[in-house]
Amino acid sequence: MKIKIEKIGINGEGIGYIDRIPTFVSSALPQETAEVDVVKRFERYNIAEVKEILIKSPKRISPPCPVQHRCGGCAMMHVDQSYQIELKEMLLKEALLKYSGKFDFKVIQPMVVNPNPTSYRNQCKLPVRMLDGKLVSGMYRPQSNHFVPVSRCLVHDEGLDVLRAKVLDVLTKYKFKEFDERKWEGIRFIVLRGFNGVYQCTLVTGKDKFSPECIEELSEIEEINSFYQSVNTDKHTHEIFGSGVTHLAKAKTLEVKMAGLTFRLSPMSFFQLNLVQAEKLYEKVVSLIKPSKFVVEAYCGVGAMTLMISAKAEEVVGIESIDAAVKNATENASLNKIKNVRFVSGDAAEELTHLSKTKSIDVLVVDPPRSGLDDPMLGTIVKSKIPHLIYVSCNPSTLAKNLKVLRDYYVIEEITPFELFTHTPLLETVVSMRLKK
Fold first, then answer.
1. Which of 205, 328, 218, 342 is nearest to 266 (CA)?
2. Residue 418: strand pairing partners
3. Are strands 46-55 and 21-25 parallel, antiparallel or unpaired?
4. How many other C-beta atoms are found inside a 10 Å radius of the C-beta of residue 244?
5. Which of 71, 74, 124, 394 does the annotation list as catalytic?
6. With 80 as the cut, is the pLDDT of residue 143 above it?
7. Among candidates 201, 203, 207, which has minimal Cα distance to 180?
8. Structural contact between residues 390 and 415, judged by C-beta atoms closer than 8 angstroms
């Protein structure tokens, strides 16, 4: 079946029409014509796979990764980087039009482009399988159980890939197998995070115990400064980690420096995956804030942006629902000798309601997960009438849905998109809004 691709989708797939029904075609680009097989039909859309590209886009390139077409992790690696930027800007504008109606694109600033299109990612969370008698890690193809071994991922910091090979070799030596959901045993995921050649390793397992000899040999790997285990035996969960982590060896935290500050991270603490671009994004947020008395950041994680904001305010409060992250954030404030910041653990809407009743908030910064702001949080923001709202988004669709509500109360001053994840359709956005008078 022949199809012409009209535009790009939020997952980096091409979108065309068969009998007026939107059809999503992975790896196809706008203005290409392709021969496709429709593999799934739904009431309102189809999913198709490319058999042959009949008319190629001049923006199509040969991906440098040999498994890109099978792995699916870098859905746009076959696209020229400058065109990737253009497509992401298009996705942002289309989302704003779709969910917010008429929109003045003049407030959108130029994309802040990632200067390092490869080796930018400081963390990996990869499933582990047995292959030819050895443990290997890789990726599952999107929306499938098809495992693709990946020895070198070009968007990873190269040290991550060197280290995961060393760790898996040691585990193979000690007779560990891939996770068996019937026995609740085996290695399920390998999680690595690191900066400047120093890494934290967490092994997600079944009910396995590591022998002292195995722990000692893993600890002898020079690059590892922190070693943990997380038991996860829930076969239905989409979460990587189990309910917690257990420290096995070496340091309890991983240290990273950003914007002149030092942060200590535990395995389950969120931290931006592209350090260079994250620093630019946080600096942008700080630059938007005028000297203030009281600033609040919701969904603050380990407090990186909150601590950077502290230089602009007499008092800053960070809100985070994950207790371990709040503990990390409080320790990071102490580590950096910042005394005008405190962190509270709890639901963002509930804590913001409480704070807004105790004193006047000059600026609210929100950095929600991909699902965006929920209805209680949107309602709290509207009721609180905070003069300056800064929204950091990692999902244009949920951002646009939230802006549809907030635009009735706030004027959008500026929208700045950031490219953190080259070769993927993912996009970060900073929006600055002022309360209507």
1. 328
2. 112, 428
3. parallel
4. 12
5. 394
6. no
7. 207
8. no
